[in-house]
Amino acid sequence: MVLPNVPDRLEVPLPDAPYPILIGSDWLADLVSSIADRMPDLSHAIIIHDAAVAQPWAATIQQALQASYRTDMISVPSGEPSKCVEQLQRLWIGLLEAKTDRKSAIIAVGGGVVGDLAGMVAATFMRGIRFVQVPTTLLAQVDSSVGGKTGINLPGAKNMVGSFWQPQLVAIDIATLGTLAPREFISGLAEVAKYGVICDAEFFAWLQQNHEAIHARDAAALKHAIRTSCQAKADVVLADERETTGCRATLNYGHTFGHAIEALAGYGHFLHGEAIAIGMQMAADLARRMRRVDDAFCEQQTELFTSLQLPITWSEADPDAMLGAMFSDKKTEHGKLRFILPTKIGHVELVDDVPEDLVRQAITACSK
Ligand SMILES: NC(=O)c1ccc[n+]([C@@H]2O[C@H](COP(=O)([O-])OP(=O)(O)OC[C@H]3O[C@@H](n4cnc5c(N)ncnc54)[C@H](O)[C@@H]3O)[C@@H](O)[C@H]2O)c1
Ligand SMILES: O=C(O)C(=O)C[C@@H](O)[C@H](O)[C@H](O)COP(=O)(O)O
Ligand SMILES: [Zn+2]
């Protein structure tokens, strides 16, 4: 008898929308029972997937689901430019043509691009239908699939239109990383390292010691990194689901700079994690200039990022252009930029009195 691979289970116990995060390996073919447990009245599943994961991942899921449900598949072109209003409209029309109703659910299969886009489709179609996240990149498994931020970009303004809409279930199969290219894998390590810096010094130290195992994609090391990251994100989301108290904003460490880098370089030039790694370096340098951290902090972060093979500079970073783009950041209040800045490894704060000349200096320092 072959026993099914039973995934580990974490909970995101939000009062109005609790859901589990299931983390396992080679278990996508058994996904149907987890979906049926969460949505006993489900009749129809629309699999919205990244074109690059049509085979084998989206096909495996369709095969598993079609014995129990009517299924449809909609493919989305790979890459950040797909987080746009044209794709959103195409998907809305696709759902209409597939005769989607309130007993249907979207199954988002892909990285953060498909997760954010399909999540926004789910949040808006018929004023909201259910969806499941099946993240297939490391970045999506440790970050974007959890927490319910969905959205698309506007030209020059990242994630500017969207909604908070929680999934019914996050189904992580580590085996899907087997087809992920090294560049995309490394990009995901930026968000993994972020948790170490913002809230978990012990995890930061673990990453320092285990970077080789991670690069070798050692199964136990990957599971530990994904589980720890998901738990950290779930804890923050639980404390501040809609980013109203400032707690959730800590997950934005490096993102004020990073989002500007993504928009200015042209969506898709940098992967999100790459831009965020450079953004975290700029934020660390800014914190040092504001005497919030010492040189040793910056050296430790740079060393970790280098060992993880993350980029730490952008030669084309222009302070004027960056500042212009950064004013589109959603943390901006009363026309003032606000930054998430560290005080030590494992702790960050939301800071609003930031001298513009120091921001310029930090950008210039990371453009060498
Ligand atoms: N909602 C959130 O909380 C949140 C958090 C972090 C990032 N994001 C968003 O996520 C996006 C970045 O996500 P990403 O890094 O996953 O990028 P992505 O979705 O573009 O995926 C990266 C690349 O990997 C390919 N791919 C995906 N899975 C694969 C697999 N298993 N095998 C082979 N190729 C595969 C894709 O085709 C793509 O080319 C950004 O838009 C970012 O803004 C959202
Ligand atoms: O979930 C969050 O909250 C985050 O900030 C996680 C980030 O890694 C992610 O990139 C998020 O999409 C950024 O949010 P935004 O509100 O700045 O667009
Ligand atoms: Zn991010």
Automatic annotation (TrEMBL):
Cofactor, free-text remark: Binds 1 divalent metal cation per subunit. Can use either Co(2+) or Zn(2+).
Binding site residues for Zn(2+): 191, 255, 272
MF GO annotations: 3-dehydroquinate synthase activity; metal ion binding; nucleotide binding
Domain 3-dehydroquinate synthase N-terminal: 74-186
Sequence ranges assigned to domain 3-dehydroquinate synthase C-terminal in this UniProt record: 188-332
EC id: 4.2.3.4
Cofactor names: Zn(2+); Co(2+); NAD(+)
Subcellular compartments: Cytoplasm
Pathway assignment: Metabolic intermediate biosynthesis; chorismate biosynthesis; chorismate from D-erythrose 4-phosphate and phosphoenolpyruvate: step 2/7
Binding, NAD(+): 78-83, 112-116, 136-137, 149, 158, 176-179
One GO cellular component term: cytoplasm
GO biological process, one term: amino acid biosynthetic process
Keywords, alphabetical: Amino-acid biosynthesis, Aromatic amino acid biosynthesis, Cobalt, Cytoplasm, Lyase, Metal-binding, NAD, Nucleotide-binding, Zinc
Catalytic activity: 7-phospho-2-dehydro-3-deoxy-D-arabino-heptonate = 3-dehydroquinate + phosphate
Function: Catalyzes the conversion of 3-deoxy-D-arabino-heptulosonate 7-phosphate (DAHP) to dehydroquinate (DHQ).
UniProt family annotation: Belongs to the sugar phosphate cyclases superfamily. Dehydroquinate synthase family.
Protein name: 3-dehydroquinate synthase
Gene: aroB_2
